[in-house]
Design brief:
Length: 167
């Protein structure tokens, strides 16, 4: 099944929350530990303006993945920097959907004038590290033992992609 990648609309919030909440409860990819309510997820959606796209991957009318470029900081000098998030529904991973979402959201980011994209990846998430590397993200550092989830202290790798360095 080939997923359709499209801009998210408010009616996708429930599908997005379902995927994110599943990852919160079953993986250390997100440092959230409590599932998000629909109201929280709606606020998150509304905080994403035209410079901060959210995309969904849809198969047969069902949201099976999403990606977002969220504001990195509300301090104005950071306005061309965003943080990417990418989550694929369990059962749909490892089929190229992450790659497709990544390709399209990065193109969107460039189109809306972002300069650089940052990601924070929990150490050990080899799939995510490989995926980001494939799209030109480079390691820029590791934050040691900044998280604790499922009883385990976790490091976080920071990776960064710059669209056109120096411009
Ligand atoms: C990480 C995630 C977004 C990747 O999406 P996906 O659809 O599963 O990945 P894809 O099938 O598109 O694979 C993309 C790349 O990931 C890497 N990859 C996939 N499976 C891998 C494996 N078993 N081992 C190592 N690298 C792997 C490869 O680089 C692959 O590209 P390739 O097929 O050209 O080699 C998805 O697995 C996911 O949602 N995981 C749980 C949440 C998460 O970790 N989110 C990221 C937070 S930073």
């Amino acid at each position: 099944m080939i997923p359709e990648i499209r801009k998210a609309t408010p009616s996708d919030v429930t599908g997005i929350a379902e995927i994110y909440n599943e990852a919160i409860l079953t993986t250390d990819a997100s440092f959230d530990v409590e599932p998000k309510t629909i109201e929280e997820q709606e606020r998150w959606f509304e905080e994403h303006g035209s410079k901060n796209p959210i995309l969904v991957a849809e198969i047969n009318g069902r949201v099976v993945g999403w990606a977002s470029l969220s504001q990195w900081s509300n301090r104005c000098a950071y306005s061309n920097t965003a943080e990417i998030s990418l989550y694929i529904k369990d059962g749909f991973r490892n089929r190229g959907i992450g790659k497709k979402l990544m390709r399209i959201i990065l193109a969107e980011g460039e189109k809306v004038g972002l300069h650089t994209i940052i990601t924070r990846i929990t150490s050990g998430n080899i799939i995510s590290v490989n995926l980001h590397k494939q799209f030109g993200f480079e390691n820029v550092g590791v934050m040691k033992e900044v998280g604790k989830k499922f009883g385990k202290l976790l490091d976080v790798c920071i990776m960064q992609k710059i669209y056109k360095s120096g411009e």
